[in-house]
Amino acid sequence: MIIDALGWIALVATCIAALLTAANLGARITGAGFAVFFVGALVWCVVGYATGQRQLLLSNAFLALVDLFGVWRWFYHRARADDAVDRVKDEEECRAPLFALDELIGKPLRGRNGIALGTVQGALADGATGRLRFLVVKPESAIASEDFLRLAWRRGLTVSAEAIECNLLPHDLAAALHHDADRRSDVAVIDQRN
């Protein structure tokens, strides 16, 4: 009876931990996910020991160690790094708005009049100057289904807390999908063929 209850507790803890970790809502939430994974692994260890399931015990003992590393990595290390980035942004914000490159990933790309154009999947900076050169954008499904676009970082692109704003319209992105755009153009399809 108690072992059955512990099995359910471990299952629920593992499911909650998976959701917290997969949500990618910041270092502290991900760290909380690993902490809950750790609790779940410990409970699975108890269930494995009590029921004589050696593989369950050993695999979850190992996972508990991995989870402890995850807690350290996300709660301590990554959270402190994020706090340092935020402090620099706060100190330097008076000159011009600053943003961390990883903050661009997942931001919506909005065109003229706030029209949703897609979601940023990555940002590429020049290795020599450190300046942003391109965004990799997944267009809205109404514009394209499978393709990713390379969007040159030009004047007119601005970053806010909510989105990246640009001067483009949906047909500007759609036009790049229907022909092989010049590699120097502002918008081009990324060829994913090997």
From TrEMBL:
Residue span, PRC-barrel domain: 99-140
Protein name: PRC-barrel domain-containing protein
Keyword Membrane annotated: yes
Membrane spanning residue stretches: 6-25, 32-50, 56-75
InterPro entries per UniProt: PRC-brl_dom, PRC_barrel-like_sf
One Pfam family recorded for the sequence: PRC
Species this chain originates from: Sphingomonas lycopersici
Chain segments annotated as coiled-coil in the UniProt record: none
Top-level taxon of origin: Bacteria
Keywords: Membrane, Transmembrane, Transmembrane helix
